[in-house]
Write a structure and sequence with these properties.
Belongs to the glycosyl hydrolase 28 family. The protein has 452 residues and is an alpha/beta fold. It has two domains: 200 residues, Pectate Lyase C-like (3 Solenoid), CATH 2.160.20; 191 residues, 3 Solenoid (Pectate Lyase C-like). It is built from seven helices and 31 strands.
Length: 452
């Protein structure tokens, strides 16, 4: 009898070890197959910044050419139009090596829509310590530039830094939005700050607030690092994305605190090698890839990492959103070490996204979504459906991996919704997501998600 018990115990130990070994092997195989692309990607962001951004290393050496907007005629009283003074200061700073374009503290500068073009001489620093405000009345805007307020383009190795504020004065724009009042015509509003067609850019310490629409746009650029930026606008302000990345590569966002009326961070077409670390998000619509594929367009996003984030009180947490009818792909995405607090849709993939006042037509083509990893994601869900994988029947989501996910519904039992999504459970997962393993659908009506 004793021998039997010993043999039984040894068998159990052997079984548990085998299961644990199998689990570890499965995880290793999965990572080798799906996420080996990240190996060199992570190394890129561990390089010494001085090696990548040579101008920053040299900024502290030698004399600097200080160009203060006040000496170029800016009043700095918040009511006088200081646009010309800024343009004159820019011409001076941009054309002279090792210049500092200075917006001094303790003053407020009213600036109309302006484009600050490069290329500029080496070693340019844009130091914003004061407040820059936009005209508050939409009637004061040039109809030829409705989508842009402050645009910096064709720059190389430039640093934006300081403790200043860029304020879009957006309240009248929000009131006129069709998302606030359906009787209003749907019109574009300006983006507060855009960095376009530039490379080796650093943005550090600035505060963006109350933008007319998107606060900070990185467009058609490469090698951009953003550190310690704050973004703030009311939770009901429409289309006020915090940081929007479009057609850009090798972008790092770190130690940013973002609260808006739309996506805290949005990553759209032709963007790759995007890394986000230590992000606070809330209020807003969460951290999003997309939307992609609108109007039957091609959408491609590849190699995205979010590592360490706290998302609080948002309508979505980690979201991938695509329109029906599009094409292209989203692949090689890693969300890890994320804490949720009272988030309505903590994990959501939505291939039926429809941000339209009219119903969207069902279509068979879709942006393909694959190789998405959720690891160490915990917290509370405001809704019962803590995880939604609403994917196309003709272009299913595949290779979705859940590893150590624990989401608890604030009221009731948390659930998982799957439609045409397959993947792997590679660790403790709550609520159970067996629908990913089984390839079975939960047959129920799925409400097309409309942006609010």
């Amino acid at each position: 009898m004793v021998k039997t018990k010993i043999i039984f115990i040894l068998f159990l130990v052997f079984l548990l070890e085998s299961l644990g070994s199998a689990y570890d092997d499965d995880k290793n195989i999965l990572e080798e197959i799906y996420f080996s692309e990240f190996d060199d990607f992570d190394d890129v962001y561990n390089e010494d910044e001085d090696e990548i951004f040579d101008v920053w290393r040299n900024n502290g050496r030698g004399n600097k050419n200080l160009v203060n907007v006040d000496t170029c005629g800016a009043a700095g009283d918040g009511t006088t139009d200081d646009t010309k003074a800024f343009e004159d200061a820019w011409k001076q700073a941009c054309s002279t090596r090792r210049s500092v374009f200075m917006v001094p503290s303790g003053r407020t500068y009213l600036i109309n829509a302006t484009k600050f073009d490069g290329p500029c001489a080496n070693g340019l620093t844009i130091q914003v310590d004061g407040t820059i405000v936009a005209p508050s009345d939409p009637e004061d805007w040039d109809p030829k530039s409705p989508k842009a307020w402050l645009v910096f383009s064709n720059l190389t190795a430039v640093t934006f830094q300081g403790n200043g504020i860029i304020d879009g004065s957006g309240s009248k724009w929000w009131a006129a939005s069709c998302k606030k009042n359906k009787s209003n015509a749907c019109k574009s509003a300006p983006r507060a700050l855009t960095i376009d067609s530039s490379s080796r850019i650093r943005v550090k310490g600035l505060t963006f607030q109350n933008s007319q629409q998107m606060h900070f746009v990185i467009s058609r650029s490469d090698s951009v690092r953003v550190n310690g930026v704050k973004v703030s606008s009311p939770g009901d302000s429409p289309n006020t994305d915090g940081i929007h990345i479009s057609e850009s590569t090798n972008v790092v966002l770190q130690d940013c605190k973002i609260g808006t009326g739309d996506d805290c961070i949005s990553i759209v077409n032709a963007s790759s090698n995007i890394k986000m670390k230590s992000i606070y998000c809330g209020p807003g619509h969460g951290i999003s890839i997309g939307s992609l594929g609108k109007d039957d367009s091609i959408g491609i996003v590849n190699r995205v990492v979010l590592d360490t984030a706290f998302i609080k009180g948002t309508s979505n947490g980690l979201r991938i959103k695509t329109w029906q009818g599009g094409s292209g792909y989203v692949r090689t995405v890693r969300f890890q070490n994320v804490q949720m607090d009272d988030v309505s849709n903590p994990i959501i993939i939505d291939q039926f996204y429809c941000d339209s006042q009219k119903p969207c037509q069902n279509q068979t083509s879709a942006v393909e979504i694959s190789q998405v990893l959720y690891r160490n994601v915990t917290g509370t869900s405001k809704s019962q459906k803590a995880m939604k994988f609403a994917c196309s029947d003709t272009v299913p989501c595949r290779d979705i991996t859940l590893d150590n996910v624990n989401l608890v519904a604030r009221d009731g039992t948390a659930e998982v919704y799957c439609n045409s999504a397959t993947g792997v459970i590679a660790g403790y997962v709550h609520p159970e997501a067996e629908c990913l393993n089984s390839n079975d659908k939960k047959i129920e009506e799925y409400d097309v998600h409309n942006e609010l």
